[in-house]
Amino acid sequence: MIILDIDGTLIDHVSAEERAAQQFGNVYADVIPRYSAATFPEVWREASEKHMAEFLAGEIRFAEQRARRVRTVLGDPSLSDHDVDEIFNRYLAFYEEAWELFPDVLAFLEHWSPNEYFVALSDGSQAQQERKLEKTGIRHFFQAVVTAETVGVGKPDARLFNSACDQVGVSPSEACYIGDRLDKDARGAQSAGVRGIWLNRQKARPVNDVEMIHSLSETLENRGLF
Fold first, then answer.
1. Could you tell me which of 68, 65, 47, 67 has the C-alpha nearest to residue 56?
2. Mean pLDDT of the chain
């Protein structure tokens, strides 16, 4: 079985978030004049990371991290829930429109699907991650989608990886996980007894204790990898 991270591995989340934040910033330029068009995407990313970390730590629910993101960026903690929802939904529409697969994903799934089960794993919300896979046309490849929202813990907690194995009745030692973050993905998988492979798309310095590839395409040339 192959377990695959979603954001940064299958779907180019960073580019989608940057494009969406740029469009969102343009729409609300009169409300947030302290940010320039050039700096707003970075401001949005920082707020997103801050409040997503609170969600993953179990401090708030997924919907609340969205609300806090809006209130933080707009600098208005008094915004009503209705206004927050309306504002965030504008961003969300831009974000969903920007979802795209990395170029190496479809060939990878088509190549390995005849012989392997696929499970998708994410720190995000169940509904949104399911929607990402549906909208990008790859949901049918996956036996299950496992998220921090439904399991109750995020990466690198071993329970999240073990839950992915449980979904299809496979032991951790029989599973392989591929993700783009060294510690949260590859080493998190290793801590659960799952073989972890670091998808080092950014070509960061390699490490000695973790298997590494730079592209999913590399696996097509190595039939003995799985």
1. 65
2. 92
